[in-house]
Amino acid sequence: MKAKNIDVALALLEADLPTGSYGEFVSETEPAKGVIELRFNCLMRGYSGWHWLVTLTQPDKRKPATISELHLIASEDALLAPKWVPWSERLAEFRQQLRAEGKAKTDAEADELIKSLVVSDDPQANDSEADSNDGSVQPPLKTRVRQRRIKHSQDDEDQEPN
C-alpha cells in the first residue's frame, strides 16, 4: 500500500506545485485510523527544513486512498521568522537602552532623541502629528442647512399666486 500512497501523493504534487518545489519522500505516518500523512522535502527557496504534507484518507482498506489536504509545514529544523514583538515593547526597550547609555534621563528626553534620529527626505514628514488632517478631504460644511433653504424657497414659490 505504501507505494500506491506515494504515487497518489506525487501525482498531486506534480499537478498542483511548480516544478522543482518538492523533493524526496521523507516519511509516512497514520495519525488516526483511515488517515495517512506523507511528507516530502520542500525545495523552494527560503523554505529550508520545510515539508510538503499530503494527507490521504482511506476509511475502507479495500478502496484506494483519496486526497484530502496539501500543506506546507515546518519541521523541527526549519527556518522560521522571529517571534513578533509589539511596537510598544520595542520602544520601551529602546528608551531603556538610551537611559542606560546616559543619552536620556527620562522617557520624554528619550522620545525627543528618537525624533531627532528619524531620517527623512521630506522636511514636513516629522510634523506628521501636527498636520495629520491636512491630507484628508473635509466634508462640505452646512450642506443640510443649504438644502433646507433651497427646499423652503421652492415651497415659497409654489405658494405664491400667479
Radius of gyration: 33 Å
Report how far the terminal alpha carbons are from each other: 98 Å
Reading off the top of the CATH hierarchy, the class of the domain at 2-74 is best stated as Alpha Beta
Number of helices: 4
CATH topology value of the domain at 2-74:
Nuclear Transport Factor 2, Chain: A
Low-confidence residue ranges: none
Task: Describe the largest sheet.
Answer: 4 strands, antiparallel
Shape: flat
Class per helix and strand makeup = alpha+beta
Identify the quaternary structure here.
single chain
Summarize model confidence as the mean pLDDT: 82
**SSE arrangement, N to C:** HEEEEHHH
Count all strands and give the number. Answer: 4
User: What's the CATH architecture of the domain at 2-74?
Assistant: Roll
Give the helix level as a range of percent: 25-40%
β-strand amount: 15-25%
